[in-house]
Amino acid sequence: MVAAVPWLLLFVGAIEAMEIPTIPGTGTSGGQFCSLPFVYEASTFFACTYTASKVSWCATSESASQWGQCEVDAPGSFPKSLPALVIDDVDPSTLPPYNRKDWPHWTTKNCQTTRTRVLIQESITNVTFTTDSGCTVGGGFWFDFYTGETFTDPSQLDIDHLVPLQNAHVSGGWQWPTEKKKQYANELDFWEHLIAVKAAANRAKGSKSPDQWKPPSEGYWCEYAVRWILIKSRWNLSSTTPEHAALTSMIESCPIKIPWAAVLSSSRPLLDGASETVTGSSAGLPGLLGVMLFIVAMAMILFYRRSAPSSSPPLTHSETELPDEQAALINA
């Protein structure tokens, strides 16, 4: 543990050194940079957070009296705890067969498909379009969290459902009406539900759960596990015992402890009292090194974004006060 302390100090120092911008017109910050670390409701944050909000935000003053929505979510932005998941080792052969056509995607809005909108949202620089109509993205700059690689050609990217459609099907989604399946397949309101990644990585993953496949970049394991759990909770989807074990192991790579309660019986409703509590342990040297590499990559992203020509952000919001409680999002 002593040997890990210098690395932990470097981790905190790297977070503090990052200049994370907020989006002009959101909150009360006037587009100022995050003030890191900051204190909110007696808790200290070293990065953007979703606490008490549906969007990632940070304070631009140490006391959180001023705040703004983060333009890029920073590493280390983890919830105080994770919601419980039902453990259900269902036999997929006992369920109706999965059919990708039952999950309509991509939907189109103002000539832009869900894929196009994800590419626009996740590009570090302003995207270019193949035509003046602005319907299809022709170029941009993307960071693939799965592999740690960067891309400028969207044809090399797939849009991945972090929790795959087939996994959602066997985890309870098989009983949803078509409209809800369509909503899940095209979800844009929750960070990393859909994510632009290297095509080869997405196809290697397929419909596999974390016990069968993990991102090649170990520095992303913590964030991947956290997002997987939050998405499953948001959509009332179950987990399997091997999947739960893999998620627990991945959470242990987090630089902070994140309590996670597991419901071990599918006969009880989601988020009912837990019979087991799993807590991630402090990360050792390998885990911290992975997180540090992730931070460096994020710092590069922020540098490129700040160096890009000034323009309107891909996502704009007009909220002047913090949005609804995170609990409302989870129970939506």
Radius of gyration: 20 Å
Shape: globular
Head-to-tail CA distance between termini? 41 Å
With strands numbered from the N-terminus, the spatial order across the biggest sheet is 1-2
Uncertain ranges: 1-18, 72-76, 267-289, 301-332
Estimate the strand proportion. Answer: 5-15%
* SSE series: HEEEEEEHEEEEEHHEHHHEEHH
Q: What is the number of helices?
A: 9
Helix percentage range: 25-40%
What is the typical, i.e. mean, pLDDT? 76
Number of strands: 14
Structural class: alpha+beta
Main sheet overview: 2 strands, antiparallel
List the helices and strands and how they pair.
Blueprint: H1 5-17, E1 38-40, E2 43-45, E3 57-59, E4 67-69, E5 108-109, E6 112-113, H2 114-122, E7 128-129, E8 137-139, E9 142-143, E10 150-151, E11 157-161, H3 165-170, H4 178-185, E12 194-198, H5 199-205, H6 221-234, H7 241-251, E13 259-262, E14 276-279, H8 285-307, H9 326-330
Antiparallel strand pairs: 1-2, 3-4, 5-6, 7-8, 9-10, 11-12, 13-14
